[in-house]
Amino acid sequence: MPHSFLAGRSFFRARPVAVLVTAAALAFVLGARASSFDARRPIITLGSGFYDPEKPPPPEGMIRPKPGSWDAVRPPRGYRVVLLTAGDDDPTRTLVTAVKHWGNTEHVALRTVEVKRRDRVVDGIVEAMDLRPDLVICAGNVLIDALALVTASHLDRHFLIIGAQLPEPTMNVTAAIWQGASSRGREVPDTTSSFDPRAFTLERAGAAIRAGVASVLNDLTGIVIWLE
Predict the structure, then answer these.
(1) Whole-model pTM?
(2) How confident is the model at residue 186 (pLDDT cuts 50, 70, 90)?
(3) Can you tell me whether residue 64 is helix, strand or coil?
(4) Distance between CA 27 and CA 53 in Å, rounded?
């Protein structure tokens, strides 16, 4: 079972917003000092072929990692993650299922913020950040426009978007995408190559989560990871 966010005796009280949050998330036990992202390191580093160390990707750059080059990377036990999700479409449900399966498998401390109304997406992002996780994993195309608006002003919070991307990500936003799962929000209209519901499978989503988390844990952030 996932562990609680335990780091001291003080309790963090989340700001009230109109999103559905688990009761346990409202009682996270946090230390007096915010968690340090840099202090949480992967158990094993990236394998050969994930990227070229001699030519690291530039900000907003794209890499095409060799399949399996991320497989050995594991987050430290108790790694704190918030799953931020919006939408009840099949692709989003597939992504959510994959994230929860990954969280259980890796024994991370996983909490969920589910946005029920489109006009409350920004509130949902704020709620996720206020829980002060090591990483916010985002699932659902509904989130993209609001993420583009909010994330650039909160560079101390790390985000991983699965199955979509920002038009212009900052260094704290990483995306893992594949053919048919690369939407950029309303700013860039979707085509069949950027959004195809049939492309969202548990296998693809699971690989994207692992590759994306492996990249973030190894400080390769602010990039797009294209999975073949």
Answers:
(1) 0.82
(2) confident
(3) coil
(4) 41
